[in-house]
Design brief:
With 169 residues, the chain is an all-alpha fold. Helix content is 69%, strand content 0%.
Length: 169
């Protein structure tokens, strides 16, 4: 018996395909570390497994029954039209972040991305811009140097800097 394709099932299928793509691309990451360390493939595989599990659970627990009960009680949906627009903007920012990493490098992209995501997701809350700049620089640098110096995992340095003749750390 064929079940109706709901938004939850469609989202689950997309999530499973995305998890499969992440796992497939993680196989392309070179293993340069010693054998007793997990290596740079570990985090993408963990992410893919988490996305896969959440996608399957989304498909199993469709939410139709809960949605009908909430509608009967007069409860509004979690995301309205403006909420979905914000989700789309965040998704677009994630794509820009991923593409920028190739050209600007992980260090610069991490700092700019942290600032942008916090600013985008702050909603109505007031955020000190200077404090956010300091946080973005400090945490972006911690991420970059933690992976490149601490874990000895090479991260993209950025093609733009090479074109300009600037040597990035």
């Amino acid at each position: 018996m064929m079940k109706k394709l709901t938004k939850s099932r469609l989202l689950g299928i997309i999530g499973i395909l995305f998890a499969a793509w992440i796992a497939w691309k993680a196989g392309d990451i070179p293993m340069l570390l010693v054998s007793n360390e997990p290596g740079p493939r570990l985090f993408p595989y963990i992410s893919a497994a988490g996305i896969f599990a959440c996608s399957v659970l989304t498909m199993i627990f469709d939410g139709n029954k809960e949605a009908r009960e909430a509608e009967e009680k007069g409860v509004r949906p979690f995301l309205g039209k403006t909420g979905w627009i914000k989700v789309g903007i965040v998704f677009a920012c994630c794509i820009v972040f991923a593409l920028s990493m190739q050209y600007l490098g992980m260090w610069i992209t991490a700092m700019a991305g942290l600032f942008g995501f916090v600013w985008l997701l702050k909603g109505d809350k007031k955020v000190n811009a200077l404090g956010l700049v300091i946080f973005s620089v400090a945490f972006g640098s911690l991420i970059y140097f933690g992976f490149t110096r601490g874990f000895m995992i090479p991260l993209p340095k950025g093609e733009l800097w090479e074109l300009l003749g600037i040597k990035m750390l």
